[in-house]
Target: DUF2249 domain-containing protein
Amino acid sequence: MILDNRGLQPPEPMMRTLKALDELQVGQRLSIINDRRPMFLYEELEERGFSHQTIVRDDGGYQIDITK
Model:
């Protein structure tokens, strides 16, 4: 699943991401695309036991691949 959060103002990207994570099943991956690095999201992912990888995109955005 891909969630494009570009163009949204905080806290909407975080809220959309957390809602999508609640629906994620074990073994599934969520990729989010943000305009900015989601610094507060990383702590939430760690607390919930998700693994993640951040990729800086050529367009200056950030793609975070999250696996449950």
Observations:
- The beta strands are 2-4, 29-34, 51-56, 62-67.
- The two ends are 12 Å apart (CA to CA).
- The chain has two helices and four strands.
